[in-house]
Amino acid sequence: MTEAAATAAAPFTAERKRARRRAAWRRRRLVLLLMSPWLVGFSVFFGYPLVMSVYLSFTHYDLLSSPKWIGLANYKYLFRDDPQVGQAVKNTIWIIVVMVPLQVLFAFGVAMMLARAKRGGGFFRTVFYLPALAPPVAATLAFVYILNPATGPVNIILSHLGIEGPLWFQSPGWSKPSLVLLGLWGVGNVMIIFLAAVLDVPQHLYESAELDGAGPLQRMRWVTLPTISPVILFSVVIGVIAGMQYFTQAYVASNVASGQASQAGDQTVNNLGYPEGSTLFYPVFLYQHGFREFNMGYASALSVLLLVVAFSVTLFIIVNSRRWVHYAGAVK
Amino acid sequence: MRRGVIAAVLVVAVLAAVVGATARSSAHAGTKADTITVWVGWSARELQGFKKIAAEYDKQHPEVNVKVVGGINDDKITASIRSGNVPDVVSSFTSANVGSYCKSGAWLDLKPFLSKDHLDVNVFPKTSQYYTQFNGKRCALPFLADVYGFYYNKKMFKAAGLKGPPKTMSQLTAYAKKLTKRGSNGTFKVLGYNPFLGFYAGNAPDLSSYAPLFGAKYVDGSGKSVLSKDPAWGRLLRWQKNLVDYYGYKNLQKFNAGAADEFSASHAFEIGKLAMMIDGEWRVAFIKAEHPGLDYATAPAPVDDSKPNLYGAGYVNGTIIGIPKGVKHKDQAWALLKYLTFNAHPLAQFSNAIRNVPTTKQSLNSKEIKPDAHFKTFLNIFSNANSKTTPITAAGNAYGTLIQAFAVKWQAGHAGDLSKGLQKLDKQINAQLKQAQAGGVP
After folding, report:
1. CATH number of B148-315+395-440
2. In sequence order, what are the residues at sequence separation of 6 or more whose Cβ sits closer than 8 angstroms to the Cβ of residue B192?
3. What is the maximum span of chain B, computed from C-alpha positions, in angstroms?
4. What is this structure's pTM?
5. Is B114:B138 a contact under the CB 8 Å cutoff?
6. Which of B134, B389, B94 minimizes the C-alpha distance to A268?
7. Could you tell me which of B279, B247, B268, B258 has the C-alpha nearest to residue B173?
8. Beta-strand (E) ranges in chain A?
9. What is the mean pLDDT of each run of 10 residues along chain B (442 residues)?
10. Best residue in A64, A65, A295 to probe B by mutation, most B CBs within 10 Å?
């Protein structure tokens, strides 16, 4: 007879009930105690700022005076009058729509090649992963340097080949594609996850497919992709959220490419979004309002909108993913 | 024997250290000196200049030790005030933020201090008085000004047969074309004048350095934006775009990308890649330190052809300095602030060190100011009645961001019709100001 069965069989006296309650409370206290570091951290660094952001979005707050309640004025300005928010949203959508699929495809492609490499697999894995270790600021500085239209090695080589290189970070048409190149170069983290997933595909599935006469493309379509679909979902979700928070590379590139990096802290100079607002992504725009113009109430309204959109988009992707993501052992 | 020598050396070293420490503290002997911390934006050579005048004050005032911290920007200032861990005296290069500092009380109202010491702010020129207050509340004082003027390469002028600096914008265009030397593929060996908005400080994309040269007005009496109503803005933007188009937008972009950082010794004007430019007075000191052999001259910047009377004026801005809320040594901070801003001696000394323009009428004419023909130009521009700064608003200089967004599209040829664009810009600026004042915030 198990202990549980013995307990169930015992008569439920009031004292026994109290003892059980005390034991349960002790267990709960222990759980709470063990969870408390996380709970405190979550409340202080996430919960409180989240609640405050929502509150501040209804106020005029310049960081120095006490917040002053202004109702929906910030949201009215955001949805009706702000001339720059549209461009910031468009830029952000562009980077998500273009960069995320390219990153996923590129990472998947590299992972497939590395998975098949017969020799030097370890070496090439290291080579392709290494850029992910470069700090974003340093990597961006390097890209602005090598893509400098006047002195950068890329355009110098192109000119030797008789090709007039683009203006890269200096051109509103090329600044975002330049950032995408930077993003693809540093795709090592996603690539390594894809590599692990690809290597984890059971060999017997490939063998069965092969016996059924499936060629390489069919094996990819019907074996590899369904098996690694949870990883694709993960990459897409993480990529979309990172796209919505795209800041560091855009901030550094605009300051350096505009030729005034030495004045980045000087608030009389505003290089954010250079050139022509083409790198003014939503988080950069939010930063401009919050920390350059001390318009923190409005910046909070922007952040609330970002939160709502990020949450909705993520939910949309996850709900829709049920149609194309297959979990091993899941029953449909 | 050897041990004895080592012991003797150690004793001497300890004695020397004690004597040194005693000597250093002797200046404050018998007093409990308070440490006054001053935050300034200057760095490197300019910071050393400030430290020198601070050290002089320190020496004269045994009751305080002055500690200088350089490289400060407004993010740090705001963060310190919010945390309550503030310096005693604080300064900022961004005079447009005076609106935030004054209305919030983040910088103390200086009126009681000024009244107590019977000090009159009329010792400062009107422009400097303007950018150190907001809506009549004075929470800052001017501490040296930045004045924009014209620099030209005399050697290149001589070679091109040009005798003096251009005085109107059409002359500037003609000179620019004459002085430009093109290389292959449209590249420039020497650019006569670079009108590209965003290229160095003289071409601030918010048009601030050009507005006084065209007499362009930002707002009307009620504070509404009038960029579309004042024809000066249209003339300014058309003149600028014509010159950009002459050079070719893409060619200028390439030139800018290849030009060295503005605050490096390879500055395009300093190394002879640029024949003329508008820049701040500080460039005089940079040239002296980095390229003392450069044959150049300074003059007031050329002005709108239809307003020749404006010649001699320029854009003025400056460092603002005050006392932050939560200050620990209020009286000592005020004493130092008063010394730095009202006393002609430190103003002249610091001006000599970094060649920024001193900000009291007395210091402008001080005999301590080292004579320098290049620098004298800027003293005159500063005194000119038509010299202007940008408006101080509740939204700080956020309106400048909107002007910039329009102007950079305009020069690229992406802004469409100019007058419609300016009308739209007015609406945007007015909406922005309304948002900044929502809920009755001043």
Report:
1. 3.40.190.10
2. B175, B176, B177, B178, B179, B180, B275, B276
3. 94
4. 0.84
5. yes
6. B94
7. B247
8. 59-60, 68-69
9. 52 47 43 84 91 95 94 90 93 89 92 96 92 94 95 97 96 98 84 95 92 96 93 98 95 90 91 96 93 97 98 95 95 96 96 92 90 92 93 84 94 95 96 81 55
10. A64
Q: Domains of chain A: which residue ranges?
A: 13-73, 81-321
Domain residue spans in chain B? 30-146+316-383, 148-315+395-440
B153 DSSP β-pair partners: B296
Confirm if B250 and A167 have CB atoms less than 8 A apart. yes
* Centroid of chain to Cα A107: 15
Q: Which of A147, A267, A287, A289 would you mutate first to test chain B, the one with the most B CBs within 10 A?
A: A267
Contact: A68, B258; criterion CB under 8 Å: no
Strand, helix or coil for residue B234: helix
Q: How far is the C-alpha of B286 from the C-alpha of B44, rounded, in Å?
A: 12
The CB density around residue B322, as the number of other CB atoms within 10 Å, is 28
pLDDT above 60 for A96: yes
- B69-102 pLDDT, tens digit per residue, is 999 988 899 899 988 899 999 999 988 889 889 9
A159's tokens: 């000119």
Asked whether the beta carbons of B373 and B301 are under 8 A apart, the reply is: no
Residues A234-265 have pLDDT tens digits of 999 999 999 999 999 999 999 888 876 554 44
Q: Which of B217, B396, B416 is nearest to B304 (CA)?
A: B217
Going by the DSSP 8-state scheme, the letter that residue A64 receives in this structure is S
Instruction: Select the residue of A83, A149, A293 nearest B395 (Cβ to Cβ).
Output: A293
Name the residue among B74, B395, B439 with its Cβ closest to that of A73: B439
Of B39, B44, B41, the closest CA to residue B263 belongs to B44
CATH architecture of A81-321: Orthogonal Bundle (1.10)
